[in-house]
Design brief:
Helix content is 56%, strand content 7%. The two termini are 31 Å apart. The chain is built from 21 helices and seven strands. It is of the alpha/beta class and 474 residues long.
């Protein structure tokens, strides 16, 4: 079976499995079922287009396989003959956006499962992942960006599945060995069976992170306060009740998720929580579209985080929307659960500084529970260069002197402001430098080991060039 035939087979299986589930829901609601199959096919097309565009490059093999696959399946959006370059440009512009949020069809299945526990969304998840794995192998090469996109999709769907439907990591649905899970994948649990690390070991790990000096100082104060409170209790001295919940503010890529994982383990080591695992979530996993379902979603996520730490990314999104939106219900439910389970739950909310201040002031119960704000500053140019070199060392690359100067010039030229990429900017630049080095070296007849390890000034793109090549890839 060729890779393009395998893709068509997986798409057909996806459509055959999911369509009857949605048709049954539509029939029960008294709705027409004539176009359900076409809608499911559209979901499959969205998955494939998002994955083949994830690395910022759409090859002829990928493009032709997609057109052949969905043309044969009579999807009018791709069956119409269009120039390849026009189709390629469209996929690069819009494809990766298809993986950012769950489709309305998946949300319908998931919400129905919350009502009756039938497991429809698990069927969608299993077949969607088959389509995903087929999509990223069309052209015979699967890069790290495509693998990261598969894991982003997998993580998003997994955290939205009802808890009882989530597969075990050791089961048949586990990530394939070739698709290493990114360190910042959403919705993961830390290994609960590993021995607890000591506070000293965890602070040593924290100190190894580049920059973040204000964050490190603030977390040491938090740990010192908890330690002294324990000593006072041991000596029968009164202890003022202190909130353990935290607000993390800062631009993307400043290490908030990484530090949250260390905080969860630190709280375990200090006896604040028993398990010390981290559950990551966001608005999409907490807010439903129907009355009565949002509270159940929030409760389910809080249950998963019991005796550990719950991290809510971009928490301010919960208060955005009109009076018909259920985000406020999610906040009200969260505040109540934080009080009811105050001895078993720590919550960290994260996002941009101004928006997080707006969020904390949106509910009277939030301000008293989130008394400590830790700001994550943007990385300086020196720190971004250090991150770049750490990434290189991890993969056995080194910068020449000219290459290092070029990296510094690149970071200096990138505008600083809201949304500045920070660590993600350094990672994107490193990945593009590796690609440019590869294009340079393939034209050399006799490539040495030193050549393979060295990134030169020629391999470092300018900020404008990098922005162009990564459009639609993240």
């Amino acid at each position: 079976m060729t890779t393009s035939t395998r893709l068509a087979d997986r798409v057909q299986r996806f459509v055959a499995a999911v369509t009857p589930l949605l048709e049954a829901l539509a029939a029960d609601a008294g709705l027409q079922t004539d176009n359900v199959g076409r809608d499911v096919l559209g979901d499959a097309a969205g998955l494939v287009s998002g994955l083949i565009a994830a690395d910022g490059v759409v090859t002829d093999a990928e493009l032709l396989a997609m057109i052949a696959c969905f043309g044969e399946l009579d999807d009018p959006r791709v069956a119409v003959a269009t120039p390849l370059e026009q189709r390629r440009a469209m996929l690069l512009e819009t494809g990766s956006q298809r993986l950012k949020t769950p489709s309305p069809l998946f949300s319908l299945l998931r919400d129905a499962d919350l009502r009756d526990g039938m497991g429809r969304s698990r069927t969608y998840y299993e077949h969607a992942m088959e389509v995903a794995h087929a999509a990223v192998t069309i052209d015979g090469y699967t890069g790290r960006l495509e693998l990261a996109a598969v894991e982003e999709l997998r993580g998003m769907l997994l955290r939205l599945l009802p808890a009882k439907e989530r597969p075990s990591d050791s089961g048949a649905d586990a990530t394939p060995p070739t698709a290493a899970k990114p360190e910042d994948a959403i919705g993961t649990l830390q290994d609960l069976h590993t021995p607890a690390k000591t506070p000293e070991e965890l602070f040593a790990e924290l100190d190894e992170l580049v920059g973040l000096e204000p964050v490190k100082r603030e977390l040491r104060r938090v740990a010192d306060l908890i330690t002294v409170e324990r000593l006072r209790r041991e000596r029968d001295l009164p202890v003022a009740v202190q909130s353990r919940h935290l607000v993390f503010t800062g631009n993307p890529g400043t290490g908030k998720t990484t530090v949250a994982r260390l905080v969860a383990q630190l709280y375990r080591a200090l006896g604040v929580v028993e398990r010390g695992h981290l559950v990551e979530t966001d608005r999409a996993a907490l807010v439903a579209g129907f009355i009565g379902q949002t509270a159940a979603r929030v409760t389910e996520v809080v249950d998963a985080a019991a005796d550990g730490v719950l991290l809510i990314d971009e928490a301010y999104a919960l208060i955005r929307g009109d009076d018909r939106d259920f985000g406020r219900e999610a906040v009200d439910t969260l505040v109540k659960l934080m009080e009811d389970r105050r001895d078993r739950l720590v919550v960290i909310v994260a996002g941009y500084p101004r928006e997080m201040d707006e969020f904390i002031n949106a509910n009277p119960g939030l301000r008293s529970r989130f008394a400590r704000v830790i700001h994550f500053p943007d990385y300086s140019t020196d720190e971004l260069v250090a991150i770049f070199e750490m990434l290189g060392a991890r993969h056995h690359y080194e910068l020449s002197d000219g290459g290092r100067d070029r990296v510094r010039e690149h970071f200096d030229a990138v505008p600083r402001g809201p949304g500045f990429g920070n660590g993600r900017l350094a990672r994107n630049l490193f990945e593009e430098a590796c690609a440019l080095q590869a294009s340079r070296l393939v034209r050399i007849d006799d490539v040495s080991r030193e050549d393979l390890m060295c990134l030169t000034a020629e391999d470092i793109p300018g900020p404008d060039a990098l922005a162009a090549t990564t459009t639609g890839a993240r």
